[in-house]
Amino acid sequence: MPCQEASLRAGLLFSPLVSDMWLNLEQVEQRLTTRSLGRVISYLTTTTSTQDVARREAEDGVEEGLTVVAEEQTAGRGRLGRSWVSPSGKNLYVTFVLRPGLTRLRALSMAAPLAVANALQSATGLSAALKWPNDVLVSGRKLCGILIDSELAGADVRYALVGIGINVNFDVEENSEIASIATSIKREMGAPASREHLLAALINEFERLYLDTPVPAVHSAWKERLETLGRPVTVTFRDAVHEGVAEDVGPDGSLVLRRPDGSQMVIEAGEVTLRAPGR
Ligand code: BTN
Q: pTM score > 0.85 for this model?
């Protein structure tokens, strides 16, 4: 495959590259139960962003399920034009190339954070809350961010790129830019965690929710874990700021906001800040 330093079918792995610092993909492969996701892993020690690599592969016609994993991103991207801090050998930076229909495309923003929360629980025992639209929080701080890029051709979905960044063994405290708002598994557990176990659990769980679970079941499991519901919130969407109570979520993942004047507003995407009650 083009554009990568090491592109490997999971399982045929590269003893020369194995080190304590780098992922052992053999261990990941041994734990996979999937038929599509993670069956081909494109592994890079460094790249600009796994989204860039995944996009090139998707444009070249790669099959659904390709999983791009990098040890480091030099230009990691977040939602709303932000950057994603991506130091080497510490965390997980993963992008899945998918080719869903429209209904499954809409469900990705629910399935992906739910998969992360379930994988986190099974691999580490940590219990996560979800914040609309798709942040994963532990102890009120962000542990994982999700970026979904999609390419449409009219009403058809050409592909979707689901990018997931999980802070695993990152010493977040040493990064003053994000220390107060972000956390890592290491920070929460007081000890480093196995990135291999977590990555395998994530791939297994994401495939289960994406391919094998009806969308209404994904929606209700996601809704149950959303800490945003019932809370007073400020939502920023396309440069406008809306205040109200996060009353519900629609079947497509949109947020239903009850405004102070009693009117309802449906917001498809944006950024939520939780406000203290009464504010
Ligand atoms: C956010 O919360 O703002 C989304 C962060 C998404 C980060 C992941 S890391 C893997 C993939 N590659 C990127 O450049 N971004 C996503």
A: yes
